[in-house]
Amino acid sequence: MKKQLRIVLIAALLVLVGVLAASALSNIGLPKQVEVVERLSEAEKARLTEMFHLRRALGSQVWPGWGEAEIPVIVHNEAYVFLVGYPEGETPPDGWVRVPQDEQRGGPWEAVPGDTFQGQPYYRQQLVGTEETPENFTVRVGESWAVTLWTREYARVSFFSEFPGEVPPLLRPVVPYRLVWRFLLGATETYVGALAHEAFHAYQGMEAPERLYAAEFAGPLESGYPWHDDEAESAWQAELDALHGAVKASSDAEAADLAGEFLVRREERRRAHALSGEMVDFERQREWLEGLAKYAELSIQLEAALDEDYSPVPEIHDDPHFNGYGSRERFWRQQVDEITRMTGRSGEVRFYYSGFAQGVLLDRLMPDWKSRVWDEDVWLETLLAEAVELQASGIRPKRLYFLGPGLVAALAQHTIHESTHYVAARLLHEQVAEFRFLTNGWLTSRVIYATPVGERAGAHWLLIAWAPAVVTTLIGYALYRTRARWLTDVPLLNALLWFATAYFLLVDALYFALLSPFFGGGDVAAVAAVGWPRWPVHVVSGLVLLFNVRLVYQLRQESKAQPERYLPAERS
What is the reported pTM? Predict the structure, then answer.
C-alpha cells in the first residue's frame, strides 16, 4: 500500500513539474511590441469595422438614437495614435480635447500613407510622450465626440508587460500568461464590447455633456470612499444580493419586490454608516456614468447573440479569436453573477455592475426610462424607485391586459386543431357523429367520430389524429419566421400574434410529449390502430418541444427588448 502511494505521489509530482515546465516554456517569446506599428493591421481594421457595423445595426435597439450617432474612434499602440470614422470629406482639427479637463492634447493629423479604412482615408500622429496618450474614455475632436481605446494588439502587449508585476515573484516564471490573457480578455467580442462601452460614453457626452463632466469630475472621490469598512461592506453585500436576485427574478412582481429591498438596504447602509452627501453623490454619478456604459456594452453583445438576422462583417471571421457572439449569452449570465462579487474590492468597478443591473431592471419594470435618464438630478435609483412604486400600484395591470389576446390566441389554436380533425376525417371518408364547433363549452370545439375507439384500424387514423398537431405547429413556425413582418403599430394586435406564435409552437408539442398519458392517450393513442407503441411518439414530440421552447425563449427575449411594441402607451 505504501509503495502504491509512493508511486502515485511521484507520478503527481512529475505531472506537476511537466505542467510548470510547459507553462514556463509557453512564456518564451511573449510579444514586446505590436507587429504593425505605423498603420492599423488588417485584423485591427476588421475589429473596428465590426464595432461600427454592430452599433449601426443594433445600437438603437439597446438605446434609442445611439445607433445613428456619428462617433469617430481613436485607437493607439505604443507609438502611434489613429483616428478612424471621422466625418467623410472633413479634415480633423489638431489633436483631441481631454474630457472633462478640456485640455488640448496631440498635434496635427496626417492621412496614413498608402492605406484606407472602409475605402476612406484615416489619420495618425506619433505619440511624443506618455502624457499625450489618449485615455480609455471619450474625447472631443473638433465638434465630434470620439471613442478612445488601445488597439487590441497593444492591449495584449501591455498585458504581458504589466501583469507579471502583479504576480508573486516565485510564481512569475510559471504563470501561463498567454492562457490568462485568453481567459480574461482574449475574445474579440470582449474588445468590440469595450469599444461599444467607450462609444456610449461619447453618446453620453453628446446627449448630456454637463452630466458627463460632473460624473467624471466625481471620479477622484474614489480615494476617500470607505472601501475598507467591514460593516459597510457587509451591508453592501446584502444590497448587491438583493439587486442580483431582482435581475434574475422569474416574474415582474418578484423583480419589483427585490428591487424595493435593494433600495431599502441602500438607504439603510447610507444612514447607518453616515455616508456623506458627497459620497452618496459619488455613488450615483458613477452608476450613471459607468453603469450605463456597462449596460450598453453588455446589452449590444447580447443583442448580437439573440438576433438571428444580425450578421457580423465578413472580414471579422478571419480573426481566430472571434466566435460570432455565440458565447455572449453565457457571458451575459456570468456578468450578471459578477454583481454579487463586487464587495471586498477597492475601486469603483462595483458601480459599473450596480448601475448595469439597475438598467436591466428598468427595462423590465419601466420600459420608457431611457427618455428621462439625461435629465438633471435623475438617477438610476430614482427611476428604479418609481418603477417599483409603479409595479406596486398596478398602474399598468399587465396580466389583465394580456388576458384578452392570450385567450383569443388559445381559442384560435384549439379551433384550428379540432377543425383539422374534422376536415381530415371527411377527406378520408370516416363518419363524424358530431362536430361541436364552438359549442363544446367555453367556445371550444370537439369532433366525435362514428367509429368507436376500439374498432379503429388502419394508418389513415394516424393522419386523422396527428394532422392537427402538424398543421398547428407549422402555423407556429410560419408566425415565428415572419415575426418581423407582422409587427404593427397596434400593441394589442402584436400581443395577440405573440401569444398565437407561442401557443401554436408549444401546445400540441407539449401534449404529445408529456401530457397525453394523463388524459387517456388522446391523439397519441391512435398508434393502436396500426399496432405501434407510443414511446417513439413521445420521444420525437419531446425533441420538437425542446426546439420550440428555444424559439419561444428567443421570442420572449425580443419582446422584452421592445416592450413598447406590445404594451399600451403610458398615460401622462
Answer: 0.70
